[in-house]
Amino acid sequence: xxxxxxxxxxxxxxxxxxxxxxxxxxxxxxxxxxxxxxxxxxxxxxxxxxxxxxxxxxxxxxxxxxxxxxxxxxxxxxxxxxxxxxxxxxxxxxxxxxxxxxxxxxxxxxxxxxxxxxxxxxxxxxxxxxxxxxxxxxxxxxxxxxxxxxxxxxxxxxxxxxxxxxxxxxxxxxxxxxxxxxxxxxxxxxxxxxxxxxxxxxxxxxxxxxxxxxxxxxxxxxxxxxxxxxxxxxxxxxxxxxxxxxxxxxxxxxxxxxxxxxxxxxxxxxxxxxxxxxxxxxxxxxxxxxxxx
Length: 293
Fold this sequence. Notes:
It contains ten helices and two strands. The chain is mainly α. It has a two-stranded antiparallel sheet. Helix 5 packs antiparallel against helix 8 (204-219), helix 5 (123-158) runs parallel beside helix 10 (229-278) and helix 9 packs across helix 10.
């Protein structure tokens, strides 16, 4: 009973470590969606600005599709007509609402849950710092997952329950695709895309940050220079520094993700060799050497 309890404890702890990594991945995806939305809204070709430009003329097709056709005599500006005054009021309120929506969405990025708003010019700085925190958190979580995998598989091998432990733990994996060719009646095709796509998630913040940085430097440098030359220069330096740190963290996270795959492959080979040993085909292999995590 003690051995069974120990195995269950190791199974729960290792499953929880993988769950922590998945939760951080979800947080990274949510942060990427928020930053990407802010980037889209800040573009000079965004939909809200196009709507605002299309509302310049009251008799335009876009305006007529929203508030109806102008009354007769609109071109002659007969303001004494009640219908014309009512239409003019509707037109002004509609354009005013468009302008307010454009300012709120294109110049400010509102963060849910926290109730704060960030100026769109600081999107690269604030978003980059948030990405760095998430990537550091992700890196430590993956390191702990590696440690837990090593400890759990060693304990399962000591108790001679490695194959059973492998199967139960493999059923809890999402982003890691363990090899189950011999155990599963319908084995999973571990294609290149299936293996590497989860590893690309930690690179999403890097790509998105470079997009924001490229737009700030190459897309709207005149706006930043016109508002504040010193602050714009500091913003560019900060975004470049953040980009370099993010690349290092993404490389470290990818290396640890690949190390997790190697651990699973090592244990799969160990199970296959033990099965061969039970049939008298080969001696049991030596355990893998410890790694620098």
